[in-house]
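To the wet lab folks,

You asked to see what we're planning to order before we commit. Fair enough. Below is the target structure as tokens, and below that is the sequence we designed to fit it. If anything looks off to you, flag it before the synthesis order goes out.
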């Protein structure tokens, strides 16, 4: 099924399920934004926001500035928060999959990733490591690896009883010959992401983020969920 059709179906689902879908998307955006905010403001961790601000003003921060308040506990807590991000992503993906399948959705769907927290984090660590190794060769192999493992979370959501490596290997099989199709869909959303970042930069306020993301998050999420459904149906045949 062409990406344009998947996107058209996603737009229809958005309007058919509004305003509930938008409300759930706002909660997801607030949770993700909150995790990001806490990660850079933990006491004792490296304050990347401060470093970026110094770089923007033309100052090159030295090791003394970067590690002045460095504490192992801060780094550990930041690491935990980084693991929570893919878990929240899995929860929102679960919500998008249920919406695509015309199933009942609830706000608690956003927390579904915590039901199999260890597996989600394991997939995140393993796939990130694999992508990093392939990227050490060239950028292109790294991109190919990224798309090769892209559906691992979706497979886990469909059957939480499956093992981590089973989800990763099944993603490789499903994505065989389909990586370019998904890349094309991702590229078609570039304009939306540019607009989203432009709004955040031009209107530096916590209110600015949902202005575009409230539409973009479900639009993109439902499109990729539909892509997964399409590939599963094709594989079954």
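Sequence we intend to order:
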């Amino acid at each position: 099924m062409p990406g344009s059709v998947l996107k058209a179906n996603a737009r229809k689902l958005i309007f058919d399920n509004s305003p509930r879908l938008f409300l759930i998307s706002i909660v997801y955006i607030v949770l993700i934004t909150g995790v990001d905010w806490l990660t850079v403001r933990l006491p004792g961790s490296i304050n990347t926001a401060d470093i970026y601000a110094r770089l923007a003003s033309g100052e090159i921060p030295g090791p003394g500035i970067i590690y002045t308040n460095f504490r192992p506990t801060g780094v550990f807590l930041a690491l935990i928060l980084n693991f929570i991000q893919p878990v929240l992503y899995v929860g929102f993906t679960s919500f998008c999959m249920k919406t695509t399948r015309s199933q009942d959705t609830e706000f608690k769907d956003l927390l579904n990733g915590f039901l199999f927290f260890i597996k989600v984090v394991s997939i995140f660590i393993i796939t990130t490591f694999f992508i990093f190794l392939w990227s050490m060769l060239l950028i292109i192999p790294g991109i190919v690896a990224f798309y090769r493992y892209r559906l691992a979370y979706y497979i886990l959501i469909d059957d939480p009883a499956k093992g981590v490596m089973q989800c990763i290997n099944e993603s490789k099989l499903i994505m065989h010959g389909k990586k370019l199709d998904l890349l094309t869909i991702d590229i078609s959303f570039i304009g939306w992401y540019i607009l989203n970042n432009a709004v955040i930069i031009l209107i530096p306020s916590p209110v600015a983020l949902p202005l575009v993301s409230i539409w973009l998050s479900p639009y993109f999420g439902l499109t990729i969920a539909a892509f997964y459904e399409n590939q599963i149906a094709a594989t079954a045949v």
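Structural context that might help your review: The chain has one domain: 3-20+89-236. The chain has a mean pLDDT of 85.

Thanks,
Computational group
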